[in-house]
Amino acid sequence: MATNTGGLSLSQQRQRAAFWFLAPMLAALFFVAAWPLLRTIWFSLTNTLLSDLYGGEFIGFDNYLSLRVLESGRWIWRGTLVDPAWWNAVWNTVRFAFVSVLFETVLGLIVALVLNAEFKGRGFVRAAILIPWAIPTIVSAKMWAWMLNDQFGIINDILLSLGLIDQKIAWTASVDTAMYAVLMVDIWKTTPFMALLILAGLQMVPRDIYEAAKLDGVNPVKVFFKITLPLIRPALAVAIIFRMLDALRIFDLVYVLTPNSAATKTMSVISRENMIDFDKFAYGAAQSTLLFAIIAVFVSLYIWLGKVDLSGEGQK
Amino acid sequence: MNARKLLNDVAFYALVVVIVVFSVFPFYYAIVTSFATGTELFKVNYWPKAFSWANYESVLGGRNFVRSIWNSVFIATTTVVFALFLAVTASYALARVRFKGRGLLLMMILAVSMFPQIAVLAGLFELVRFLGIFNTPYAMIMSYVIFTLPFTVWVLTTFMRDLPVEIEEAAIVDGATPWIIITKVFLPLLWPALVTTGLLAFIGAWNEFLFALTFTSSETTRTVPVAIGLLSGASQQEIPWGPIMAASVIVTVPLIILVLIFQRKIVAGLTAGGVKG
After folding, report:
1. Are residues B27 and B104 in the same domain?
2. A82: closest CA among A97, A96, A62?
3. Structure confidence at residue B168 as a pLDDT band (50, 70, 90)
């Protein structure tokens, strides 16, 4: 169309256009992400109540940690950093994140290796493993809650008939097993995602490497550890970190599968509980700010350690 | 040697069968349960024995669940259209124009998509109340931008990078402005990518739970995940498992069909985005 650019060079014209193309997106992200985040941090420094969002006063870091010295000389620490319920949630979240990501990586690797082999019905298997991924988390939680039901659940029935347990287990209700239940469902639901990411990495490995190894008669196990694993390490690392960040913020599965269980309550769950259910809005905001800080550290580590080429100039 | 190969094959196919059964069984069992009623529901049946539509009738007969489906469709569709609209131009700028701070900007967008949603909950709650959209679909449409927009920008940027430079250069020589390049040259080429990205963003919005739970207060404004999550009987003993399974099947079947149809594209989109499912 009009080529009269008012004396601007082509690249200047393009840069100006780029600015206007980016502006709406940046405005939207500021509005729904940056601003609410700043407000959350601000709320965490006040004593705001859910019922009176604008009535809070600045109280510094008291929601995090505060010290009161009584006249008797006793020191009383308060705040989320000395709250056992918070540390229980931190421990639950960390345990959940490490165990689930570990299992998802190992199982995902196995599934990816299977899908990378050529065999009849490969397309069918790939379609089948997409099903857990496609099912909404809440639906998975309900489906498994039913299967794990203590009296009528099929899992207890299977385990009983196999003789692995001798009495029915209240999987989701019992303190000892609630975390296993959450892990089981999460691993079932997310392993396919891991497998697909790892498979993408596996498919980058040139086939002739395997051919050569086969001709030389190298043991397949050795091929896997000496050739495949080192070559897919970057893809694996990205997948693990994405999953880790996702696992650290888990909310929906825990909330629906094991409601109000102290054994599984995660950082996200406890923050929301304080914020919305217990009318300790500012206290919950402080806890969610802490979770944000933990994840921010992880993300920075990822970008720093991974040296990810984000500008994309090195690729293609 | 041959015996060993046979043994290997058997072991391999056994593994394949285990993978398939593990993946599919829970959904299969939900379907079996959804057709069972009365006492049949409380017997463990591995094969479908009863076949009754009663659970489906009770779920679809109650007005609120149908309402929830419409809420979810409206919210997810609007969110996706809005995100794609903003993302197409933004990702053109990010993929095709060199400017200072581009790497940093992409990094920030990636960081937002890894955000714990709980961290913005308090601030968004205030914003939703301030705008007077609490307990309306617009509260969800607004808040879902936080995860759909970074995701669509990120994936579309990777797709757009792969479009050949020659096409764009030819258009520039013809005097096309960047806007013309996007709408007339790139958009027709980007359709497959838009469908994939849109579908993935749709699934994300369809499945979201935390914001939908917090920003709605009445049964008529709930989205599907909240409706299913909170579907309960009078007590722990009276959880209506039959209707819950029927509702689960109803909302999952369309997703599974979509995912199976767009299988290859979805896998490509997921790996390009490297984003959560």
Report:
1. no
2. A62
3. confident
What residue of B is the nearest CA neighbor of A298? B114
pTM score, whole prediction: 0.88
B12 contacts on A by Cβ (under 8 Å): 114, 117, 119
Put simply, whether A16 touches B (Cβ < 8 Å) is no
Mean pLDDT estimate for chain B: 87
Closest by alpha carbon to B87, among A24, A204, A2? A24
Q: Look at the block and give the residue holding tokens 């980016």.
A: A22
Check CB contact under 8 Å for B105 and A22: yes
Q: Which residues of B touch A243 (CB under 8 A)?
A: 276
| Together in a domain, B24 and B128 | no
Structural domain contains residue B57 = no
User: DSSP string covering B49-91, please?
Assistant: -----HHHHHHHHSHHHHHHHHHHHHHHHHHHHHHHHHHHHHH
Give the pLDDT score at B73: 95
The ipTM assigned to this model is 0.89
Local structure of residue B221 (DSSP, 8 states) = G
Give the domains, in start order, of chain A with CATH numbers.
42-82+278-308 (no CATH), 84-262 (1.10.3720.10)
Are B120 and A33 in contact by the 8 Å Cβ rule? The answer is yes
Same domain, B12 and B94: no
Q: Are B102 and B22 found together in one domain? A: no
Chain segment A26-80, per-residue pLDDT in tens: 999 999 999 999 999 999 999 999 888 888 889 989 899 988 888 888 888 888 8
B118 and B199 in a single domain? The answer is yes
Which pLDDT score, from 0 to 100, does residue B235 have? Answer: 57
Dihedral class, residue A292 (left if φ above 0, else alpha if ψ from -120 to 50, else beta): alpha
Phi-psi region of A121 (alpha: psi -120 to 50; beta: other; left: phi over 0): left
If pLDDT is split at 50, 70 and 90, which confidence band does B273 have? low
Residues in chain A: 316
Residue B145 shares a structural domain with residue B194: yes
Give A 129-188 residues with CB within 8 A of chain B.
Answer: 129-144, 146-147, 149, 151-154, 157, 188
What SS3 state is found at A67? strand
Query: What is the total count of domains within chain B?
Result: 2
pLDDT at residue B234 greater than cutoff 70: no
Is residue B51 situated within a structural domain?
Answer: no
- Chain A partners of B157 at a C-beta cutoff of 8 Å? 312
Residue B258 and residue B135 share a domain? yes
Structure tokens at A56: 């809070």
Q: Do A153 and B12 touch (CB under 8 A)?
A: no
Which of B94, B114, B271 is the closest to A299 by Cβ? B114
Q: Is B69 inside any structural domain?
A: yes
For residue B256, give the CATH number of its domain.
Answer: 1.10.3720.10
A119, B161: Cβ pair inside 8 Å?
no
pLDDT of residue A34: 93
Domain holding B13, by residue range, is 2-42
How far apart (Å, rounded) are the C-alpha atoms in residues B1 and B26?
39
Is B264 found in the same domain as B193? yes
